[in-house]
Amino acid sequence: MSEADVDPEERLKRQRDDLRLLNQVMRHDIRNDLQLVGAYAELLDDHVDEEGKEYLDVIKRNTKSAVSLTTTVRDLAEVMLREDAEPSRVSLARTLSQQVEEVRSGYPEAVFTVEGSFPEAEVVGDEMLSSVFRNLLRNAVQHNDETPPKVTVSATVDEAEGVAEVRVADNGPGIPEDQRDEIFGKGEKGLDSPGAGIGLYLVRSLVEIYDGDVWVEDNEPKGAVFVVRLQLAE
After folding, report:
1. Among 81, 95, 115, 133, whose CB has the most other CB atoms within 10 angstroms?
2. What is the 3-state secondary structure (H, E, C) of 174-230?
3. What are the pLDDT digits (tens) for 73-104?
4. DSSP assignment, residue 168?
5. pTM summary value
6. pLDDT tens per residue, range 150-175
């Protein structure tokens, strides 16, 4: 039987099974290998000279980035494998605080600042909302050219509008206005757009599922601010 003769429902089932398999390989085999590379790189600290340490730091940094990427791919696959999952309600303060602490511990070279306190509000979302914040926080560090990278996180609620806004500001190079759609894979080329990353594509995909919005503004004196607007849960 040719591929053209396969029932569309059967073809979709095969594609979903293939995606599950790829997700499993990414989550286990590739991730485990990368973590092993990272562990052995740490063991080399006392065995290299100054020049070697510079190269070793590159290995460590890129291994950490690749491990983070496996998490993002896992989350994206889970979104794609969902079958009509309906968002519910999630605590904004708890979810955001947890991700700030996790990313802060993963990037000790960066300075994370929380402005004020996070509002005790529930927003439309689900367990994947944590992935939105995690990817924005990582993005603010990984694409930052300053030493140290500085990230400021704040959140506000507008009861009249029925929305909450989370702002993740960095002191990096900023994003030119004509690239601000493309970085989320929103351009005609999708993920082939210049600068589009899978993490930001996942952010946009999830926020749209929650009937929210995400965009980029300029930070002062330099850098970018990623703004996520979420609906307050009724």
Report:
1. 133
2. CCCHHHCCHHHCCCCCHHHCCCCCHHHHHHHHHHHHCCCEEEEEECCCCCEEEEEEE
3. 888 888 777 766 688 999 999 999 999 999 99
4. E
5. 0.78
6. 999 999 999 999 999 999 999 999 98
